[in-house]
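Much of our argument rests on the idea that a fold can be written as discrete symbols. The amino acid sequence and the backbone structure tokens for this protein are reproduced below:

___
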Amino acid sequence: MGLFEKFRKKNEADAASAVWAQAYTAVPKFYVDPQGEPFGAVALTEGTDTVLFKAPQNQYQVDGRPVRQWKIVFFSTTKGEVLFEQEYFAALARLQEQKIDERDDAILIKGLSLAEMLQLQQEPPEDDAPGWDAITEECDRVYPHQEDPKHYGTLINWRFGGDQPLDGISVYDGGSYWHFVTYGLSELYDKESDIPEISGYGMEFTFKLKKDAYENEEDEIRCVCGILQSIARITFTNGELFHVYESLYTGQSEGIDCNRRSNITGFITVPDDKFHEIDTPNGKVCFVEFIGVTDRELKAVRNQEIRVKELYEKLGSDVTDYHRESVL
């Protein structure tokens, strides 16, 4: 690198540092919602370059309690009033287009004009989440009369410092079972990967849990959601893809149910018999279904005593039954 190139890079770095130093760093104020939970709010002021933390929940606590709810309040100096407020992480995603610079823990947003603020106030266009919509369309095909399934969303998105990689999990009533469908392993919003024919990791997870006389069915459903989040975390952190007719050996002897009493300790994967591979605006997505299996069955697969496809045939069902015995 030549002497002038070194000076140029140093000047660019100095200029970038000056921009950050001159910007306003949004400092939150804290309030309590009707349920008694604290929430934080930061102001984004018209015409003011502002530093916003990507994960403010990691920066602040109130009386030792984590603050999980956050808002951005948009203030107009032209009108001298608050224009509106938005959920923090949804607003942060939409403000990416106004980004000047970015660091590991924060982004620098340019001062917005009144017109730009009012534009942000408008409802996002319907095609803001084409990947999400494509999955929902497939769900509607499979369950045409369930317009409002159970849905378990993620409060803080993974890319903004949350610990849940999936944006959400919908749970449909399959009659004798609950049918779980994930949102988040594929590209739900904009196309970001370099492979045009594949959306994100090219997969979403499904799971069928037999309805039974559970002590608390809602707890069991939430437990499954937690398990699917944990499996997705393997992909997000290690890049591991899950294909059909594979096994996931957990090494645990306790059940995967919320009370840890079941014989089911791990999983095999199969093609979901109801959900087809879909073509989304961001590429193809296939649905990989997880089936709960016993420790004995998993060890047999690991020891090559039986292949996953053969075990699936022996099971005779893709619905996970926490109370069944091993078929081996």
User: Anything to note?
Assistant: Residues 6-12 have pLDDT under 50 and may be disordered.
